Amino acid sequence: MSNRLQPILPEHDTQEFWDGAKAGELRYQTCDACKGVVFTPRSHCTECGSTKLTTRASKGLGTVYTYSVVRQNRSPAFADLGAYAVAYVDLDEGFRMLTGIVGVGDPTKEVKIGMRVQVEFEPQDSGEYPVPVFRPA
Amino acid sequence: MATQERAAAIVGIHEWPKRLDPGVSALQIKAQSIGHALEDAGLSWKDVDGLYDAGEGEGGGGLGLAPYLGIKPKVIDTTSVGGTSYEFHAAHAMRDIAAGRCNVAVLSYGSKAASQRIPIGTGGPRAGGSWQSNMENPYGTTLIANYAMVAHRHMHEYGTTTEQLAEISVATRAHAMRNPQAVQAMQDLNFADIREITIDDVVQSRMLADPLHLLECCMVSDGGGAIVIASKDVVKGTKKPPVWLIGSGEATAYKTNSNDITTSAGAQSAPVAFGQAGVKPSEIDIAMIYDSFTITVAVMLEDLGFCKKGEVGEYIKGGRLRWDNPDGPALNTDGGGLSSNHPGMRGIFLLLESARQLRGESTSQVEGAKLAVAHGNGGLLGATHCGGTVIMAAD
Prior knowledge:
The complex is a heterodimer of chains A (about 140) and B (about 400). Chain A has two helices and eight strands, in the order αββββββαββ. By secondary structure, chain A is mainly beta. Chain B has about 400 residues and is α/β, with parallel strands linked by helices. Chain B has one domain: Thiolase/Chalcone synthase (Peroxisomal Thiolase, Chain A, domain 1, 3-Layer(aba) Sandwich). Chain B is built from 14 helices and twelve strands. The radius of gyration of chain B is 19 Å and the shape is globular. The chains are: A mainly beta (about 140), B alpha/beta (about 400). At the A-B interface, β4, β5 and β6 of A face α4, α5 and β5 of B.
């Protein structure tokens, strides 16, 4: 269990994403008009402005685009994590997501740009929404 | 240069001298700095007809600052884009003055970030419940971590090293040690070891967010200042040599599903500014570039066109950015955010030191300095940010 900050809901753009997390799905959107991939979730396509979007479930596989290991965070929500890795992960379906990397011994040594990772839904003491994070695939 | 328009100039400046000042409010810093800057210009309170403000501090902005100051401006611009708000303000004042909308514009800044112990870089999350915060806050990405992710990607793509980035910290500390206000700042803010630093000092300093070390991160201070920008007709009667605003550009950049995180908004704003000014980066004497972190400067030197993308490590080696290196440009000759002041939104200091250099008043004066660029960054490099570029020329 972990004590990460929870999303504050209801919120119009992100509710469906977090409902997905609760159902064990990593959700993203595609545009019916231009086929563009939309992430983070919105009610319009950032490529063409269309509001005809379809929500889809990702396979949850991706590649670390970049990362950092946070050694100091004054927010108590992260105190228990020690040094922890944050990253941008490029999902195979074509969207880039800010996330955390877990399941490594020493994040300062074992997280690498280009490494393949897989989503997992980390349950939280802090609330009902599990947080999608990634571990080495 | 011959075709350059010289419609507006910085004619008055003031930098709040203290970096830890529990005895004043942020608004008092703003108001008193405006008074000093007007005095510096030889102008009066009544001359001000343009107000530019980021709304920071304790009740500034379009509704707050004019009544506090007691002025009735004809132009009110409250563009608020984080730390580079002041480059945007200077750009807008230049445009508004050229269009005849106002003649004497003031911009000001005041912050108590150190007195109020605001943990800017390592602090808590965004205010909750928005489309952004709901996707970011669960991950604990500190402000520093956003910049660190840019640094990691830059290192991965181009082989950039901490030793190379450290050149930026070393040069700005050397400049700070020549600036009595910066030395006082480091004393007042309890810096452990107040001296010039080496590349090794930077590499050995504590890691805050991999790969960024403590000595690659700006300080948190109090501070502020003010700038008076006037039309060419007003300039004729001012006390100090004018510093002409000759080019500006503004842009935003943000995370998409495929953007290159190592390229900032500066890549869009700089060509516009240099184009308007009719000058090239290689002609610039003074580079005042927002040094929130080493990587910020590194990316922006590339994006401003001083060197190609990926080549900054090689470009800055050997102390190139020092005030006394003839290869130039001289970087952040006041000591920068790394070693002089960073009250949260540093953009105004980029303009202030540019003006001092082009007047011949810097504590690390570059002889014969004719051209300066101020480039600010507001928001988070690597995530959502704005970039503002202002090019200035000596009279």
